[in-house]
Amino acid sequence: MNSRIRVTVWNEFRHEQRNPKVQEHYPQGIHAVIAGALAGEDVDVRTATLDEPEHGLTAEVLGQTDVLLWWGHLAHDEVRDEVVERVYDRVMEGMGLIVLHSGHFSRIFKRLMGTTCDLKWREGNDRERLWVVSPGHPIVEGVGEYIQLEHEEMYGEHFDIPAPDTLVFISWFTGGEVFRSGACYERGRGKIFYFRPGHETHPTYHHPDVQRVLRNAVHWAAPTVRSTPRAFGHAQPLEGAGS
Amino acid sequence: MNSRIRVTVWNEFRHEQRNPKVQEHYPQGIHAVIAGALAGEDVDVRTATLDEPEHGLTAEVLGQTDVLLWWGHLAHDEVRDEVVERVYDRVMEGMGLIVLHSGHFSRIFKRLMGTTCDLKWREGNDRERLWVVSPGHPIVEGVGEYIQLEHEEMYGEHFDIPAPDTLVFISWFTGGEVFRSGACYERGRGKIFYFRPGHETHPTYHHPDVQRVLRNAVHWAAPTVRSTPRAFGHAQPLEGAGS
Amino acid sequence: MNSRIRVTVWNEFRHEQRNPKVQEHYPQGIHAVIAGALAGEDVDVRTATLDEPEHGLTAEVLGQTDVLLWWGHLAHDEVRDEVVERVYDRVMEGMGLIVLHSGHFSRIFKRLMGTTCDLKWREGNDRERLWVVSPGHPIVEGVGEYIQLEHEEMYGEHFDIPAPDTLVFISWFTGGEVFRSGACYERGRGKIFYFRPGHETHPTYHHPDVQRVLRNAVHWAAPTVRSTPRAFGHAQPLEGAGS
Amino acid sequence: MNSRIRVTVWNEFRHEQRNPKVQEHYPQGIHAVIAGALAGEDVDVRTATLDEPEHGLTAEVLGQTDVLLWWGHLAHDEVRDEVVERVYDRVMEGMGLIVLHSGHFSRIFKRLMGTTCDLKWREGNDRERLWVVSPGHPIVEGVGEYIQLEHEEMYGEHFDIPAPDTLVFISWFTGGEVFRSGACYERGRGKIFYFRPGHETHPTYHHPDVQRVLRNAVHWAAPTVRSTPRAFGHAQPLEGAGS
């Protein structure tokens, strides 16, 4: 029901400047590949990174953002309080938020979940299969029964998150673990999607089905055009109400 | 993400032929008013009623229906087994289903819920206020904090349904009752929305906000264009899997 | 909050009479092993099987049952309508129901879920790991991070069930599949737990953690002593209510 | 499954020292009345208040607390950071938390919910009816269809909380509002119950059904005796796993 959706892809953008193995897959940064995958007929995309002033997330930028994507890993603690609160306020108002991979430990995700968001992990030779468990959900439109990634970092349960409002994907890993890898939440008036894959040393964000899921998620998370007002505070009774 | 949505409005269409008070509000039937409210730029609407052959719900009609709306009251038991199963099969495949008011006791709704779907009720002088409790949900796009209906039949808790996947509205009634009056479910690949108001002796379906909710619900419940396949039965292991 | 819990273990009891491989693990039947595991200080257990009159589930037996366990596979269609409805009515009233393994296709489970309950399967050399994803839940009291079964039949997603009210276990299988293998539901006033493992050719019900989960589940599913009344039908307004 | 449950009732304890209308109902403080209602055969109770050192919630006290109740209103901001974090850490480990009435705006509740927890309110002449919508839940054991309170402060939707894992009560108010007034959550390994009524100028905590709900909630929220371990961090693959 939206006309054009305004997306901001936020990336920590540190690994790409240091690690040749990451540069190989993401020479312009992870954000550039994701932005390229999202831009389209009905989606306008900009990017923002940690080392820009205000991390690129000024009040003006966030005020013009319908859906924010978040990739972070090494430097969660460098994200400043006021930016975390600014993003948080926008989610309460209805901005969509898509949290990627190691963003499970970002300050904004922990703030919104209210739990530690801790998990198991292993860098190794795992294959990952993301099985669709909610096959009618718009986020899996056009996706098959599962998405298979030949090499990915393993994340395993227990994943310390609230039970998702809707669980969309469950991952299988070669080494014996499972993970709730696609999880939808509604918080305030905002929609949140956590999507597990995307380790920086693998070409995951080039995978067509991963890109498709992100595009679908952007459409799902975009706020409704005329959102329901929410009035808090003191209230008058209904006229004519008994007592 | 759909192009045009094909809607079928099903109505029992008995009250309207017998009760002058109902005819006053719905001279062509409840289905005619709802169909008129739904038809639009991206929605094609047809109607079907109980006394047509196969209740108007042939395999061909259902095969061309993306979202089915259901209003029934007096004659739930006259709906034939094979039509109930046909609708059920289509919901499992992905057809959306919007169940209205007294349709809580329809055979198809009870079949899908797995509970008695029983409730309290009173015809009287109740006012109803439907409060939005999920303000970011697409079904309440453009709706205010609540919808107020000056005269409606009361339905009260306990409403014997499964806990909704998403609860969208809670109703308040003058006489002291509450009711979960907007409830979303996913069953199979289909989306189901139960929407409480719509007693036949009140002009409820002429109310602009009620019509807006129905239009929103049609868009929400429409199946995705390229749905995720579901394969059941015997399966081969992943190549190279250990043991 | 219950004093003694009255449990009935129902078993189809056909495999055990025909298949030596099954007899080896369950010479007296699967029900006998489960009953032995459940009987204890605060639990009284009886058993019932398909070929008894009324399948052993007379109105009297069910009226004295707080929690019913259900194992069936070959002969789901032989379970008579009136027994299915009798069990169903008791669940609506508050009797707990624990559905085991191939019971996913039993008539009573499909009746309560409202979906096809279909899934993938493979008899082979899979190992299964049931990961706990709800570590504070009473059903996993005393269980470690996961339960590992060296040989089990594989069940894989998509499992066509409603999203569980609480998801307790997710299974990993060697061959590349995952499965929601411990799922809690509330239907009517009854609590339902589906627990995946338990193929007849494996000694699964002898495993101490499987037995522990079943004991925990019996305590979880037992009805409260003084259940909340549910009044349906016509209702009077609150005295003094306005209009 | 617990032997004795160790409960701590925390109260801000300011209104009672200033307002004669509050003193009339709670001469020893709200905490004293609640503690008296909870103490029993299998429950040990202590109390703690804001103006004690460390607000009475030392590491030792919390380490010996299975379930914490929280009533606060005027002085949420005076609760110190380290105490909020200490309570939070204990909930993650499995301590139950019951948040009462105006505690919806406490720092610990907002921390755990991840939302603003804002709402509508009115002090006036409202009657409140708390309708049971989850009649098989242990928290409503022994409670009728609803609890009626002749005078209470009104809290109305939209209540800005995550969708509850289980919704137990919905309140009706004379003046036209509804409210999700009994809400269960699982966060980390801890269980949380928010229970709406309890304005300081009304004798709500003397009401037998309110006391019954609190007693039930204490039993529901108590941690399991042998909780499931949760291992986070680096993990080894399953032996023999393929790649």
Automatic annotation (TrEMBL), chains A, B, C, D:
Please indicate which superkingdom the organism of origin belongs to: Bacteria
What single Pfam family name could you report for this chain, choosing any that match? ThuA
Where exactly are the transmembrane stretches of this chain? none
Q: Domain ThuA-like spans what residues?
A: 6-221
Q: What is this protein called?
A: Trehalose utilization protein ThuA
